[in-house]
Design a protein that fits this description.
Blueprint (H helix, E strand, L loop, with lengths): L1 H23 L4 H8 L15 H32 L5 H35 L1
Helix pairs in contact: 3-4
Length: 124
């Protein structure tokens, strides 16, 4: 009896997987029209020039991504040091200090970004 239900479920999943590409890759005329929005001239057309705000946003985004990578690397490094300390209090304390400093640093950076975003939202 269990074998019968297993075969039914397996065949149902196989059929669903076979039809999945046809469902996902469906394209309609409405989707083609949505792709054309913003390409033609009009109030919602794409900007041809890169403005100062676009460049500044890209630079800030890149710097925040770099800070995030550095934070992740510091956390992995401190975690590795803590796990390999083998009970040595000096190494454990060093790892805890690294984690604490990394957290303080990321809090300062995120706070500065929040203040920057708040100020520039009201200035421009």
């Amino acid at each position: 009896m269990l074998n019968k239900y297993f075969k039914i479920v397996l065949s149902s999943w196989s059929g669903a997987l076979a039809l999945a590409p046809h469902i996902v890759l469906a394209e309609t005329a409405a989707l083609k029209k949505l792709d054309e929005i913003g390409v033609r001239e009009g109030p919602y057309s794409a900007q041809s020039e890169t403005g100062l705000s676009t460049i500044t946003g890209a630079v800030v985004g890149a710097v925040l991504a770099l800070v995030g990578v550095i934070f992740l690397a510091l956390m992995v490094y401190a975690g590795y040091n803590w796990m390999t300390a083998r009970g040595e209090e000096e190494k454990v304390e060093k790892a805890k200090d690294t984690i604490t400093r990394a957290l303080i640093g990321i809090i300062i950076v995120v706070g500065a970004y929040a203040i920057w975003r708040f100020v520039f939202a009201y200035l421009f």
